[in-house]
Write a structure and sequence with these properties.
Layout (H helix, E strand, L loop, with lengths): L1 H32 L3 H13 L1 H13 L2 H26 L2 E2 L2 H23 L4 E2 L2 E4 L1 H20 L17 H32 L4 H26 L3 H26 L2 E3 L2 H21 L5 E2 L1 H21 L1
């Protein structure tokens, strides 16, 4: 037990340092390439911080433990929207740019809605329960590739905020920072998930509850660390783009790849979680648009954070 706690602390150190150099490298790349910080957050940073989810799901799919695969993604997306955005907004109000509020958050909402439909519609059923088939996995992957190509085509339209510039970093060094940051995030998330799961199982907690809570939270720690570091560096575009991109990546790419490896049965109990992701994304969209300033302020952060606590309470009640 004590060894597990020590490993978890080491994981946190890797996460924090990895997030720091990842944000620094990604910011430098954005400045040098003339690409907006939001696009960098939506692509490079989102890909990197979603690596723990991808690795966990690939392993779960290959081992046939699909409950963990689906529970991990749903729980992670709930943590991203409600917990991470909520906590980040409590530290500093988040300015949500036009691309996020008109294109990316609605697309994340659409992705969650499509996932729910594919899981429950009759053609995606296996043995009388909902399922994601290989064909549906290909549809999810296609949706992600379309979104990514659309983002990259319009990536130079946004205006860079030169005030974020900190120091001159060579392209090579910036690339090394990004790669080293991704490695640190991956290793930190992996260590935390492994040893937190070991602690939970020692108390007799079920796999599905572990995947929706501890594993989901652990694989969302890179997003949390990256978003908080980005906000600390006065760069809310990377913070918001990281979360939105990560959720789209999780649903369309990670679950798509997982279903392509092996069809994923979806127990009826997880339909509620899928609906919860749809509602959470809709709540985020509503908070963004409730004021014409398009800012997620501290009041919005409190609403999101309290909603996450309510979600956790529901999970524990369900057992």
């Amino acid at each position: 037990m004590l060894a597990d706690v020590v490993y978890i602390l080491v994981g946190f150190v890797l996460l924090i340092k990895g997030a720091d150099i990842l944000v620094k490298g990604a910011t430098s790349i954005a400045q040098k390439a003339g690409v907006s910080y939001f696009v960098i957050g939506l692509t490079i940073v989102a890909f990197g911080t979603s690596m723990p989810e991808l690795v966990v799901n690939l392993i779960a799919s290959m081992k046939g433990t699909t409950d963990i695969a689906v529970g991990n993604i749903l729980g992670s997306n709930m943590a991203n929207i409600l917990l991470i955005v909520g906590l980040t907004a409590l530290f500093m109000p988040l300015d949500v740019n036009i691309y996020a509020r008109k294109r990316d958050i609605p697309y994340a909402f659409l992705a969650a809605l499509v996932l729910l439909f594919l899981a429950v519609e009759p053609f995606g059923r296996l043995s009388g329960i909902g399922a994601l088939t290989r064909v549906e996995g290909l549809l999810l992957i296609g949706g992600f590739l379309y979104f990514l190509s659309f983002v990259l085509r319009s990536s130079r339209d946004a205006i860079l905020d030169e005030e974020v510039y900190e120091e001159a970093i060579s392209p090579l060094r910036a690339g090394v920072y990004v790669i080293a940051g991704l490695v640190g995030l991956y290793l930190g998330g992996d260590v935390i998930v492994e040893h937190a799961t070991a602690i939970a199982r020692s108390f007799g907690v079920s796999d599905i509850l572990i995947s929706s809570t501890i594993v989901a939270f652990g694989t969302s720690l890179p997003e949390l660390a990256t978003s908080l570091l980005a906000v600390y560096k006065k760069n809310s575009d990377i913070a918001v783009g990281n979360i939105v991109g990560s959720n789209i990546f999780n649903i369309l790419w990670v679950l798509g790849i997982s279903a392509l490896i092996t069809p994923i049965p979806v127990p009826g109990s997880l339909f509620v979680d899928m609906a919860a992701v749809v509602l959470a994304t809709l709540l985020l969209l509503g908070i963004v648009h409730v004021k014409k300033e398009y800012i997620i302020g501290r009041s919005g952060g409190i609403i999101l954070f309290v909603s996450y606590l309510a979600y956790l309470f529901m999970l524990f009640l369900r057992g």
